[in-house]
Design brief:
By secondary structure, the chain is mainly alpha-helical. The protein has two domains: 57 residues; 58 residues, no CATH class. It contains eight helices and no strands. α1 packs across α3.
Length: 164
């Protein structure tokens, strides 16, 4: 990974400077587009100066066309406010299915199909990601007996179960 202060080979700008120039460059390209003067050559020059691909600059322009705030910090990830989060219902299913995420997912899909009109269930990957993000190890594992305070935490190597 490149150091923030390192000058690129060929005399380019440091990475921090290139990032700082993204917003002004995209706003200038938007002004050119509004005046019907934007060309692929403009995009090529900006891409070269900022050390990104032309396709990236075109994506920034498309995003800024949809939402003007995207022109302020091109390339920044949008904060999605509708992401899937772990609800008390999902926590209960995790406890019911002893932490088996695949079984919880199957149950959520079945419940969504029974709704009228049929609703949507999160994908298995989304469910895994939300569990990793929203639950602590003890919170996720405690439901299955394998987390902090669960059965696994009480096991002592070399001792038979129930003979302690």
């Amino acid at each position: 990974m490149e150091d923030e202060r390192t000058v690129r080979a060929g005399g380019g700008l440091p990475a921090a400077s290139r990032r700082a120039l993204r917003g002004p460059a995209v706003r200038r390209l938007l002004a050119l587009r509004a005046g019907k003067g934007l060309t692929a050559g403009h995009v090529r020059v900006v891409a070269d100066a900022l050390g990104v691909s032309e396709r990236t600059v075109w994506r920034w322009l498309a995003a800024a066309g949809r939402d003007e705030r995207a022109a302020d910090v091109p390339g920044a990830r949008a904060r999605i406010s509708t992401r899937f989060t772990i609800t008390p219902e999902v926590r209960g299913l995790l406890a019911l299915w002893r932490g088996i995420v695949r079984a919880v997912h199957r149950e959520l899909v079945q419940r969504a199909a029974r709704q009228s009109p049929p609703g949507g269930a999160p994908s298995l990957t989304t469910l895994h990601r939300a569990i990793r993000r929203d639950l602590t190890f003890g919170g996720a594992g405690g439901a299955s007996g394998w987390g902090a305070g669960g059965a696994q935490a009480r096991c002592v190597p070399g001792q038979a179960a129930g003979l302690a």
